[in-house]
Amino acid sequence: MSKVILVTGGNTGIGFELVKLLAQKPTVEKVYLGARNPKAGGDANSRERSLSNVEFLQIDVTDPASIGAAKEYIEKKDGRLDGLVNNAALGEFDKNQKATEIDIGLLRQVMEANLFGLIQTTVAFISLLRKSPEAAILNVSSELGSNSSQSKSGQFHAVAYNASKAAVNSYTIALAHELKEDGIKVNAATPGYTQTRMTGYNEIARSSKEGAESLAPWVLLDKDGPTGSFFDPHGKEFPW
Ligand SMILES: NC(=O)c1ccc[n+]([C@@H]2O[C@H](COP(=O)([O-])OP(=O)(O)OC[C@H]3O[C@@H](n4cnc5c(N)ncnc54)[C@H](OP(=O)(O)O)[C@@H]3O)[C@@H](O)[C@H]2O)c1
């Protein structure tokens, strides 16, 4: 089938690479490049002029009015949504995120985008996803959101970010259970440590194209695809 997909935070980093990658897949009809900043979204869209099936759509996941307008736009144009990629997020790794010193304002800001934003976007698009014969929701998570992994290996404890992604994981599990009856696939996946603005373009990390490549399969699932799983960058299940 020809899929219509929305990627939030699609103007840069992994989201931008994912938009490009998905738009080139034969089963994809159109990819909405979601961006909160119209200039950044428009610029990103015009950088990919060769892809005529990419369209910029303004969506700030913390702003219910913009989410509602984006949903209405897709509803009018396409009548359904086949793939929702909840990619938009804040890292704020340059700020103090120590468990004993975290600023509650910072915690709220990160939760607002990474958790509440993701949930309100998802809820708004459920009716359009239900109109698709094979819909998938991909929540872009992180190894840092895995409580099992963090408790054992004690990697990098950035309280606001890690707690937001752990909560996204929890939401993913609940959503997958609820949408099983509708046949909507819901998974979380991590792109792995990737060179983007969020990580200060750290050269030891993988490229954002590689990050996007590891996420793409979970957006293009068919009726027999998995649901309720958390995948690592190599396509293997990762502990929640
Ligand atoms: N990079 C890594 O190593 C890594 C590892 C694991 C998971 N991840 C996850 O991968 C995803 C993409 O991250 P990235 O590394 O590509 O980061 P990035 O380059 O910083 O991009 C983040 C994107 O999210 C957007 N965004 C932030 N708040 C938003 C809001 N309220 N509404 C709409 N868009 C918003 C940003 O828009 P603006 O440009 O307007 O700020 C930007 O487009 C995130 O979910 C991240 O947690 C990344």
From TrEMBL:
<dbReference type="GO" id="GO:0016491">
    <property type="term" value="F:oxidoreductase activity"/>
</dbReference>
<protein>
    <submittedName>
        <fullName>Oxidoreductase</fullName>
    </submittedName>
</protein>
<dbReference type="GO" id="GO:0019748">
    <property type="term" value="P:secondary metabolic process"/>
</dbReference>
<comment type="similarity">
    <text>Belongs to the short-chain dehydrogenases/reductases (SDR) family.</text>
</comment>
<dbReference type="GO" id="GO:0005737">
    <property type="term" value="C:cytoplasm"/>
</dbReference>
<dbReference type="Pfam" id="PF00106">
    <property type="entry name" value="adh_short"/>
</dbReference>
<dbReference type="InterPro" id="IPR036291">
    <property type="entry name" value="NAD(P)-bd_dom_sf"/>
</dbReference>
<dbReference type="InterPro" id="IPR020904">
    <property type="entry name" value="Sc_DH/Rdtase_CS"/>
</dbReference>
<dbReference type="InterPro" id="IPR051468">
    <property type="entry name" value="Fungal_SecMetab_SDRs"/>
</dbReference>
<dbReference type="InterPro" id="IPR002347">
    <property type="entry name" value="SDR_fam"/>
</dbReference>
<keyword id="KW-0521">NADP</keyword>
